[in-house]
Amino acid sequence: MSDPILEARDVHFGYRHAAPVLAGVSFAVRPGRSMALVGESGAGKTTLLRLLLGLARPGSGAILFDGRELDLRDRARRLEFRRGVQTVFQDPYSSLDPRQRVSRIVAEPLRSLGLGSAVADRDTSRSSGLGSAIVGPDVSRTDRQAEIRRRVTAALDSVGLPADAADRYPHEFSGGQRQRIAIARAIVCEPRVLLADEPVSALDVTTRVRIVDLLAELTRERGLTVVMVSHDLGVVATLCEDIAVLERGRIVERGAIDTVLGSPSHPYTRRLIASAPRLPSGRS
Amino acid sequence: MSLLTVNGLSVHSPDGRALVRDLSFSIGPGERLGLIGESGSGKSLTALAIMGLLPAGMTVSGSVVLDAPGMPATEVVGAPSRRLDRLRGRAATTVFQEPLTALDPLMRVGRQVAEPLRRWRGLRGAALREATLSALTEVRLSDPERIARAYPHEISGGQRQRVAIAMALACEPALLIADEPTTALDVSVQADVLSLLANLIAARGMSLLFITHDLAVVAGVTDRVLVMRDGTAVESGTVLDIVTAPREPYTRDLVDSARTFDEALNRRKP
């Protein structure tokens, strides 16, 4: 089995004078095996995602990135981590800056991660596809602009948006298209992992199918691994290979999704599965 | 005779766009109808139009007649608000999606449930207190005395929605309109609230208009569904017919989408 890209090792997290939010959480995200973090409100799903993103630090235990403890104080490692791990949020209406054109929104990771800087230049070992075109520090400003533009167009294209979307503003797009913009922004720097917090729950069901299809395509064609927080078992069963079920800050069950959904061993998992509303089949 | 008859209902926005167009359907006593559609389909506006609660500036045309037992049949469209006040709560009442906004945050839950009981059944004192607690017990809230003393923020989302249901049922309405009543709830809580709603409605012989975007949810609650898109009715029929043999392309798209996620759950081998 290949080495995990991201790993939580006996992670605890809590606030003073309150019950712990996370207690003894351990799991590994391996390349090519998209992972679902499933649970109900207050289970600690979003907190866990914030820890995986380095937005908060565990009280005890560790988050590991490529086998080393996540340390975002080191600039080089922070840039490396941000290039490798990107995120998409639940609400496509609040996660995009309404005053910026789509081209600027999508290009943001390229700018903040220093396309053309020494760090990006050094990082040629993982070059593939778009990532091969890392531009050195000596390249002129216009060339850099052209390169950013090229990558933005490619990212928009791979999420199924037309090139002219780049010159428009977020309010001109529907919820599903906005989520595509958010995904384009996340994949523009060719990350290996996409952390997605309920990425489709704010969308209509027909749109939901299209976005899940898009994520599945990105995992197939770009070797992207998705870590998805969701309460919707149908959605995660469509996309993910592995699952961890969280209840009140603890992982009560985890493993291959076929096994966990097919023969759940924990009562809470069984209750979640039994609660999922189902369509009448009509076929007997 | 139908309890609710909607005929040629249209709703226009202040700038003249048609948000609901020429919608007609009816619900008989004890019947349950699901109104299903995606965002912008006009399903919630339809619910508001039935209650005469459309936002200012919207114009309504067509007819909405509520004919509840023991009350004169009333045309809602164009009716003065004094007449509508007599209908609301008794002929028809609504449970909304978000119980936190449906409840007054500054008032204890018990007082909010007591209010319609006091107004409609004329109860006072100990009898009112008794009726409040029994209303909370009926929606299967354990420890109703504690819930009655609590403020809305002190109880969970599922408990709040149960309180909202208790308030809606307090006046024994003939028609309950439930607008996405479980969308804000966790799945296991949703399952409980849905079965509670179904049982209460069956036990009281009430009619139900259930509004949702989720085919699987509506399938468990109502017998018939009406599919809406862009303010118009696309197709209607029994839940089973719609789900197994949709006639319109839009309905097929909707069913196929829901089916994708549903079948992903089936594919999982034991």
UniProtKB/TrEMBL annotation, chain A:
<dbReference type="InterPro" id="IPR003593">
    <property type="entry name" value="AAA+_ATPase"/>
</dbReference>
<dbReference type="InterPro" id="IPR017871">
    <property type="entry name" value="ABC_transporter-like_CS"/>
</dbReference>
<keyword id="KW-0813">Transport</keyword>
<feature type="domain" description="ABC transporter">
    <location>
        <begin position="6"/>
        <end position="273"/>
    </location>
</feature>
<dbReference type="InterPro" id="IPR003439">
    <property type="entry name" value="ABC_transporter-like_ATP-bd"/>
</dbReference>
<dbReference type="InterPro" id="IPR027417">
    <property type="entry name" value="P-loop_NTPase"/>
</dbReference>
<keyword id="KW-0547">Nucleotide-binding</keyword>
<dbReference type="InterPro" id="IPR050319">
    <property type="entry name" value="ABC_transp_ATP-bind"/>
</dbReference>
<comment type="similarity">
    <text>Belongs to the ABC transporter superfamily.</text>
</comment>
<dbReference type="Pfam" id="PF00005">
    <property type="entry name" value="ABC_tran"/>
</dbReference>
<dbReference type="GO" id="GO:0055085">
    <property type="term" value="P:transmembrane transport"/>
</dbReference>
<dbReference type="GO" id="GO:0016887">
    <property type="term" value="F:ATP hydrolysis activity"/>
</dbReference>
<dbReference type="GO" id="GO:0005524">
    <property type="term" value="F:ATP binding"/>
</dbReference>
<keyword id="KW-0067">ATP-binding</keyword>
<protein>
    <submittedName>
        <fullName>Dipeptide/oligopeptide/nickel ABC transporter ATP-binding protein</fullName>
    </submittedName>
</protein>
Automatic annotation (TrEMBL), chain B:
<dbReference type="InterPro" id="IPR003439">
    <property type="entry name" value="ABC_transporter-like_ATP-bd"/>
</dbReference>
<dbReference type="GO" id="GO:0016887">
    <property type="term" value="F:ATP hydrolysis activity"/>
</dbReference>
<dbReference type="GO" id="GO:0005886">
    <property type="term" value="C:plasma membrane"/>
</dbReference>
<dbReference type="InterPro" id="IPR027417">
    <property type="entry name" value="P-loop_NTPase"/>
</dbReference>
<feature type="domain" description="ABC transporter">
    <location>
        <begin position="4"/>
        <end position="255"/>
    </location>
</feature>
<dbReference type="Pfam" id="PF00005">
    <property type="entry name" value="ABC_tran"/>
</dbReference>
<keyword id="KW-0997">Cell inner membrane</keyword>
<keyword id="KW-0547">Nucleotide-binding</keyword>
<dbReference type="InterPro" id="IPR017871">
    <property type="entry name" value="ABC_transporter-like_CS"/>
</dbReference>
<dbReference type="InterPro" id="IPR003593">
    <property type="entry name" value="AAA+_ATPase"/>
</dbReference>
<keyword id="KW-0472">Membrane</keyword>
<keyword id="KW-1003">Cell membrane</keyword>
<protein>
    <submittedName>
        <fullName>ABC transporter ATP-binding protein</fullName>
    </submittedName>
</protein>
<keyword id="KW-0813">Transport</keyword>
<dbReference type="InterPro" id="IPR050388">
    <property type="entry name" value="ABC_Ni/Peptide_Import"/>
</dbReference>
<keyword id="KW-1278">Translocase</keyword>
<dbReference type="GO" id="GO:0005524">
    <property type="term" value="F:ATP binding"/>
</dbReference>
<keyword id="KW-0067">ATP-binding</keyword>
<comment type="similarity">
    <text>Belongs to the ABC transporter superfamily.</text>
</comment>
